[in-house]
Every structure is written in C-alpha cells, then in structure tokens.
Design goal:
21-stranded mixed β-sheet, isomerase, diaminopimelate epimerase, EC 5.1.1.7
C-alpha cells in the first residue's frame, strides 16, 4: 500500500494571519509522504510551522486553500480507493478515525492499519478506529485495530476521540451523549459543555478467570496484590478488566514505592504483556502514589507498546488502588500525556472517566 496523503489541519493564530487572503480557517498540505526529511517544508516560503503534528514531506509540497472551509464537506467526500480520515488524540494517545457508518465491515484491513499507523512510513498513530452502524438499539458500534494489527475489545482514550468524531459527523454542538456498542459491552460517552468527554465505562471485572489471568485468586475470586515473577523480580500485581485485561502494579515485594519515571518500559513492558499468566496478553500499568487522590502511571499497552495515555488503564489503576487501600474512589491520574479524572462510584459500581479529545488534522490516503 503506497502512502500519499493530502492533509488538512487546524491553524494556530499566527499561521492564520499569514494566510489572511483566504476565509478558510485551515489549509491543505498535498504531498507524497517520504521517510527522509526531518521537518515540514513549505514551498510557499511562509516560514511558519505548525506544532500540532509532524509529517515527512518533499520540498515540492504545495499549500492550497480548500474549496470549502468546512470539515463537514471534507468528510462527505466519496472517492474510490481513497480513505478520508481525521486524526484525533486523547492526551497524546492518537488515532486515525474513519467514517464507517455505511458498512459493517472495516474499510481498512489489519495489515493496512499497521502501515497507516507506522510513524515513519505512514500517518502515525496508536490505532485505527471505525465509527460503524449501531447494533441492538445502540447509536453506533466502535471497532479498533491496534498499531500491530490486533483488535482490542475497547479503548478508553479512543472512545473519547470517537465521541468527538461522531459529534462532528452529526454536526452537533454542546452537551450530547451516545450509546456505543464495543467488544467490552455498552459504553456511554457524554460530551460536556467545556468540550471534555465524560464516559460511563461500566463496571470493572475482577473475577480472575474473566480478566483473564491464570494467577490463582487470593481475595474471593479476584487477584489483589498477588505475586508475579517477572524477569527475576517478584512484583505485586492486581488484575482488573475494563472489558480488556489490565495488570496493575505499585512495586515489587522489595520496593513498594515505585518511581515510574525510572522504569525502562521498553524492556519490562513486553515481559508483562506476554507473561504466561495472561492467556490473552495484558496491558500493564506501573503506578506511583502521591496522595490518596493523586496517582501517576506509565503504561505498556497490549498491541501498541508504550503510549502517552490509556483510558481503560487509568480506570483499572483507580480500581486497583482502592482494592489495595492506597487511594480514594475519585482520583486524578497523571499520564505522560496529561491528567484524567477517574471515579469509581459506590452508587452503581461504574467507573466514570473524564478527559479531553482533540483534532490533530484531516487527511486522505490511497489504499
């Protein structure tokens, strides 16, 4: 699959002033993507740079204003062999969003998703998300392919991005909620007046066999602060599913005060993900406790590796912290990409996640 893209992106105020001759509030960059150059180059010689993203481009890149200054018209285009997409991020966890409402089959294959997600030879993303027709009375269905082509049950940051994408597709403004069918069950995101998205993530799954983990239950049917031997060290772990499996650790048996910034995540993460105790592999969260309402985590995601944020992981972290008597039911969880507000409600046992989702750029790519 060749990668050649036309990209449309929001402008910062200085860049908009440099293009004051057009009424549109974004411009279009058209160029084949190539891996060699390090920076974005402008044939027009404006000298401006956009901090929102980086692409590799030849010096022959053209800048042109679109025919219509509206994302809606861009998303409505139907061209054979061309995929129109919008790239979003939730705290740096970034996704390629695809309007798949006209078919129940993803418009991109897992192999194509791998190429599109490549950060050197493709668009670059942690996954590809499809907005698909709803089933069983839901508004929409969400499917996602990870950057390695695998398909997870759900993604917390991804569901926030999907909610904002759906609102754009529907041209809706203000507070709005959607019912979305996922591999993890029914998820209900609600766009708030401030633009953040609050998501009812449902109830955590704690039964060991349903997470799933082969670690023997040590509290009722759950695995809480149990020993897991990884690469010669004995780690204390709590296993939680948010519709996808998570292994949460606050440290080893020798050291309970984990300093997450000191971890070599690329080395230790895969050893947790592929551990024999996790038959479906696992996401792994390494957590540092600042106070009962303030936690910090780094994550190794199943199928994506180290990412800047993981919404389901932040939910699992708060559940594990409560079960281990380390934190309250409502916490701010700091991730490398920024904070999420997580609440495990005593009233209905549901987890509520609140955080941002932002557009990075609009683009088209031949498949």
């Amino acid at each position: 699959m060749a990668i050649a893209a036309a990209i449309t992106l929001p402008l910062t105020a200085p860049t908009r002033r440099s293009l004051s001759s057009t009424s549109a509030n974004f411009v279009r960059f058209s160029s084949p993507l190539t891996p060699q150059p390090k920076n974005l180059k402008f044939a027009a010689g404006s000298g401006t740079q956009c901090p929102s993203f980086r692409i590799c481009a030849t010096s022959s890149m053209r800048i042109e204003a679109p025919e219509k200054g509206s994302p809606d018209s861009f998303l409505d285009r139907k061209e054979s062999g061309i995929l129109h997409f919008v790239k979003y991020h939730g705290l740096g966890n970034d996704f390629i969003l695809v309007d798949n409402r006209d078919t129940t089959e993803p418009k991109v294959s897992p192999d194509q998703a791998v190429k599109l997600c490549d950060r050197n030879f493709g668009i670059g993303a942690d996954g590809v998300i499809f907005a698909m027709p709803g089933v069983n009375g839901t508004d929409y269905t969400m499917r996602i392919f990870n950057s390695d082509g695998s398909e997870p049950e759900m993604c917390g940051n991804g569901i926030r991005c999907l909610a904002k994408f759906i609102a754009e597709l529907e041209n809706s403004r203000g507070k709005r909620s959607f019912t979305i069918h996922t591999g993890a069950g029914l998820i209900v995101p609600e766009i708030q007046e401030d633009g953040k998205v609050r998501v009812d993530m449902g109830e955590p799954i704690l039964k060991a066999s349903d997470v799933p983990t082969k670690l023997p239950p040590n509290r009722d049917q759950s695995v809480v602060k149990a020993r897991l031997d990884v690469d010669g060290s004995a780690w204390n772990v709590t296993c939680v599913s948010m519709g996808n499996p998570h292994c949460v650790t606050f440290g080893t048996e020798q050291s309970q005060d984990l300093q997450v910034d000191e971890l070599n995540l690329a080395d230790i993460g895969p050893k947790f993900e592929h551990h024999v105790m996790f038959p479906a592999r696992t996401n792994t969260e390494f957590v540092q406790v600042f106070s009962p309402t303030h936690l910090k985590m780094r994550v190794w995601e199943r199928g994506a590796g180290a990412t800047l944020a993981c919404g389901t992981g932040a939910c699992a972290v708060v559940v594990a912290a409560v079960l281990e008597d380390r934190a309250a039911r409502r916490c701010t969880v700091d991730l490398p990409g920024g904070p999420l507000d997580i609440e495990w409600s005593e009233k209905d046992n549901h987890i509520y996640m609140t955080g941002p989702a932002e557009v990075v750029f609009y683009g088209s790519v031949p498949l």
